[in-house]
Design a protein that fits this description.
By secondary structure, this protein is α/β, with parallel strands linked by helices. The protein is 48% helix and 15% strand. The chain has a single domain, classed as Rossmann fold. The chain has a 7-stranded parallel β-sheet with strand order 3-2-1-4-5-6-9, with helices on both faces.
Length: 273
């Protein structure tokens, strides 16, 4: 059984000795974490447990969710976020068990690899439902309470594929690109109202994601990162109120090249994949 990770307490968001920590909204008192049965979501749940944060974790794998709940001491709610109305049921359960929700972590995700013209309509619909509609709908459920209280944090797990596009992952790249627009627009809308929106751009991560999508990770470089490292860095970014965080950080340089010199980026992508 894994032990909870150490609390994330970045220096630039920590209060002085005489200042109440909760004034800064960190660590959160309560949190909802989707996709918590494995990977990044699992590590986020364990890290929050180390901060004495009360959590409601959710996922589709009931037995795995039970294990994470036992390790983190959090409440669990097995639900398929691809199903219509799942976000309403989850929000109602969160209100019942946690009361006010300080932090929403949308980590649930689904992959799809292979030629785009061979992707079935059903697979495409489920991909969009999990990766796009569920975080947007769940945010819509929990955001009004955050705005009313003037306090809240939303942490979205995107992907480098959403910023750069990855061949062989056309639909997945499109779904994660949708989160970029959502995060940017929402951040602008809630600015100055006590709610922060942080979007994480992880590269390849060592999780069951690749196995579940039906295509293993075959690149020799870069090597997949530990899920715990990604969880720690994105929680730290949320604590600081950063708009985005790239893990590893050098991926942000690739995005800048893509934005400034698209032809150069395409040539490099053709060489390195």
């Amino acid at each position: 059984m894994n032990t909870p990770a150490k609390p994330v307490t970045p220096n630039d968001s920590s209060p002085g000795p005489s200042e109440p920590r909760q004034r800064f909204g960190w660590p959160p008192r309560t949190a909802v974490v989707t996709g918590a049965s494995s990977g990044i979501g699992r590590e986020v749940a364990l890290a929050l447990a180390g901060m004495s944060c009360r959590t409601l974790i959710t996922g589709r794998n009931g037995p795995a969710l039970d294990e994470v709940a036992a390790a983190s001491g959090g409440h669990r709610f097995a639900v398929d976020l691809a199903k219509p109305g799942a976000e309403t049921a989850l929000a109602a359960r969160a209100e019942e068990l946690l009361g006010d929700v300080d932090l929403l972590v949308c980590s649930a995700g689904q992959g799809a690899a292979g030629p785009f013209d061979q992707l079935s309509r059903d697979s495409l619909s489920e991909l969009i439902a999990v990766n796009v509609l569920s975080p947007i709908a769940l945010t819509r459920e929990l955001l009004p309470g955050m705005l009313t209280r003037g306090r809240g944090r939303i942490l979205l797990v995107g992907s480098v594929a959403g910023a750069l596009g990855v061949r062989g992952e056309v639909a997945y790249s499109a779904s994660k690109a949708a989160l970029v627009g959502f995060a940017d627009a929402l951040r602008s809308e809630v600015e100055g109202r006590g709610v922060t929106v942080t979007l994480c751009f992880p590269g390849a991560v060592d999780t069951p994601f690749f196995h579940r999508r039906g295509a293993p990770y075959v690149r020799r470089w870069p090597r997949p990162l530990p899920a715990r490292l990604v969880a720690e860095r994105m929680l730290r970014a949320s604590a600081r109120g950063q708009p985005e965080v790239w893990v590893p950080g050098w991926l942000a340089l690739a995005a800048r090249v893509h934005g400034i010199a698209p032809p150069l980026y395409r040539r490099l992508a053709g060489v390195f994949g």
